[in-house]
Amino acid sequence: AACADVDVVFHIASYGMSGAEALRTNLIQEVNVGGTSNVIQACINKGVGRLIYTSTYNVVFWGSPIDGGDESAPYIDPAVCWDSYSRTKAEAEHMVLAAHGSTLQHQQQQGQHQQHSQEQQQGQHQQHQQHQQTGQQQHQKQQGGGSGMLNGSPAHLSDSQPSSSSSSSSATDSAAAHGRAASGRGASSSSSGGKQVGAQGAVLRTCAIRPAGIYGPGECRHLPRVVQMVRGGLFQFVFGQGDALVDWLHVENLVEALRRAAEALLPGGPAGGQVYFISDGRPINNFEFFRPFITGLGYPFPSLSLPYRLMYFIGWLLELMHTALKPLGINFTPMLNRSEVNKCALTHWFHIDKARQQLGYTPVDYPMEQTTAWFRER
């Protein structure tokens, strides 16, 4: 019902990105894959012409550095990827792209109903014409019979009947031919209309955008956890190589990318069946990105740096603790898991040239102070 009378759907829901929820594999599968399947089917059933899927870098990045990648990067291998979020998001993205070009049932039903109505109207019109011609024929017969009787010449009536019959037959044939022609034009118009509608929206058009980590005023996934750790005295060190680069994406740039993707999915647009990396276009070290945010909140930036492998091992231990304590009714939330360590410490940034060229996407440079002020007030 939510998709009724809707032109475009932005599918942004997901589950399992970070924290304890990243270890709830069944729910991750249910939401990311099952939920996406439901969205696709709802779009098809309700005649929604455009579907934009909000994917993630994780569909191609898992644990190996990617220095300046693009949309040609292969998907992660689900057979070896232990991260449920990455695996299910890749599967869901593939489903959305595979649905591109699917026939919209709602549009098809409307087209069939319209064609049936046209054929019914044409049949009634043809029947009315034939009824008129039959009435004219009977009238001519009556006129011809009266003349024959008055003239006392039955042969005159006999001679006139073929003429009348021929005239009537010609008129009837003409009407029938006109009906066939009208029916033919109607069918041609309906068929042409169907093809035209098919090109303009009788099929589902889909694309996927792959946003980097999102930040900005009101962001409720990454920054609140950082604020919680900073205020709780837990942010005492950084880790990984100082030259590792990642992408970030301001929420306003994300909204702009979604809007432009919707426009590019219109008939004749380039986005159908495509994927796009979306970011601010300024790769930066992950912890250096947070430096102005942390100091802006009034806290010192940590000077201690730990090696990546140590943090990866700690993330693994925290995951084990979560799994071991769960049967005991203890809801232990890992401060970090292995996937988050990889995202923080390993280089993975992507060019956004394709989005620039095909979507007309141009990211705006938003100062971190804007975001810091929003969180400082809360």
From TrEMBL:
Entry's Gene Ontology BP terms: steroid biosynthetic process
Entry keyword annotation includes Oxidoreductase: yes
Cross-referenced Pfam families: 3Beta_HSD
Annotated region (Disordered), positions in chain: 101-197
SUPFAM superfamilies: beta-sandwich domain of Sec23/24, NAD(P)-binding Rossmann-fold domains
Keyword entries, A-Z: Oxidoreductase
Keyword Oxidoreductase: yes
PANTHER family: BIFUNCTIONAL POLYMYXIN RESISTANCE PROTEIN ARNA, SHORT CHAIN DEHYDROGENASE_REDUCTASE FAMILY 42E, MEMBER 2
Protein name as annotated: 3-beta hydroxysteroid dehydrogenase/isomerase domain-containing protein
Source species of the chain: Chlamydomonas chlamydogama
Upper classification of the organism: Eukaryota, Viridiplantae, Chlorophyta, core chlorophytes, Chlorophyceae
